Amino acid sequence: MSYLLGVALFALAILISVSLHEAGHMLTAKAFGMKVTRYFVGFGPTLWSFKRGETEYGVKGIPLGGFCKIVGMTPQDDDVEPGDEKRVMWRYPVWKRTIVMSAGSITHFALALVTLWILAVSAGLPNPKFPSTDEQLRAEPAVIALAPCVVVESANRLCQAGDPASPAATAQLKDGDRITAVNGRSVSSWGDMLDVVRATKPGQATVDYVRDGTPATATVDLAAVQRPPMGDPKGATSAVSALGVQLQFSTPARVQYSPGAAFGATADFTGNMAVQTLHAMQRIPQKVPALWTAVTGGERDVDTPISVVGASRLGGEAVENNAWLVFFMLFVSLNFFIGVFNLLPLLPLDGGHIAIAWFERVRSWLYARIGRADPGRVDYLKLMPLTYAVILIGGAFTLLTVTADVVNPITLFSR
Questions:
Q1: Helix, strand or coil for residue 46?
Q2: Contacts of 346 by beta carbon, 8 Å cutoff, 6+ apart
Q3: What residues contact residue 68 under an 8 Å CB cut-off, 6+ apart?
């Protein structure tokens, strides 16, 4: 039940975000005097609506997004009533049209930033100094946290009934102990400890450690497990030894900030997220084969894109496991991605309309400088084949990601 509640909550959060996106367009358009005739949440048949002034507001039957109708977005629009000619959008200065068209993405960015600031003050943001690469992890001190069990066949699942107890726990080692040697072989880091333990035969071994500054030695019965090579989780497994411990990090995973310091932390985190988002978007074409593999029965690559369906399922998992920080970070990431994606200079995205507006402005300026007549507005009808191509490709990609998220979803927690 909690999983379904989480899915519903995340889907509702997305719907609210998209509705606020359209509200951003509407409010800025109205502020500049443009005519807005409709603002609806959802698509399909109208469930409920009312009219205030010149705008009809309402809710439609399919809760997948929303829309607002600004009269005269292009010179080719034919729904301009007599007397409204001066209020059509395309007649307004390019800077005003840019604000209106970018207001949707700005709304997504604002939602992400406000959520991040609240998280920074309350739960904390990911620590930028927290180890994130294999090299950094291996360099950490060999300070242990006891694992609840030993997973014999695969390390990529949680403990289940019948899994053997942690050898370290059985030998009375404790969280916070720092391993210094195994069978007399010196250990100086977490990576050293992994290498030494794996190279030691299963069975009894002596483990030297330091607890609260006091050296001690324990006899541990190392477990025999199957593991892939270090640094290659998809490699062929082989028999190695395991101590039944996890790394206890020397730095906290999250940092909580004061209200003032949270602004700087939010800005830094947003900058890193922007870089990661751009890199992720660049990799999208490369991930199409992996998505197809996931749809046709292969293993799902966790680095493949997800749809709104996949994001909602992850939100459900987060709520089911009481991981609300994960839930809100998913909300932040999705809003930031939608904001960036919507600014791409492609029709029918908002970024396409912005790009055309500035192209017209620059072209008019250049023609004026060389003494030629203004060529006027871009004919959107001539761009329709390109627009349809973008819609077709985007629709096919969306269908592929939704299918993958239904038949072979990415999971954050074992269920």
A1: strand
A2: 352, 390
A3: 22, 23, 25, 26, 29, 36, 38, 39, 40
311 three-class SS: helix
Cα dihedral 332/338/340/344 (nearest 10) = 180
Three-class secondary structure of residue 188 per DSSP: coil
Question: Would you name the residues annotated as active-site residues?
Answer: 22
Q: What is 202-249 written as a DSSP string?
A: SEEEEEEEEETTEEEEEEEEEEEEEEPPTT-TTSPPEEEEE--EEE--
Q: In this structure, are residues 336 and 109 in contact, taking their beta carbons and an 8 Å threshold?
A: yes
Task: Determine how β-strand 238-242 pairs with β-strand 125-126.
Answer: unpaired
Instruction: Find out whether 140 and 193 touch, Cβ atoms under 8 Å.
Output: no
Write the pLDDT tens digit of every residue in 65-114: 889 999 988 888 777 788 778 899 999 999 999 999 999 999 999 999 99
The CA distance from 139 to 133, in Å, is 10
pLDDT digit string, tens, across residues 364-404 = 999 999 989 888 888 888 999 999 999 999 999 999 999 99
* 178: Cα separation from own chain's centroid: 35
What tokens were used for 81? 């009533």
> Quick one: which of 325, 351, 355 has its CA closest to 126?
325
Both tokens assigned to 155:
């390390």
Question: Which tokens sit at 352?
Answer: 């396409």
The predicted-structure confidence for 212-230, as pLDDT tens digits, reads as follows: 999 999 999 998 888 887 7
Q: Are 73 and 100 in contact (CB under 8 A)?
A: no
Q: How far, in Å, CA of 72 to CA of 340, rounded?
A: 25
Whole-number Å distance between alpha carbons of 393 and 385: 12
The H or E element spanning position 409 is none
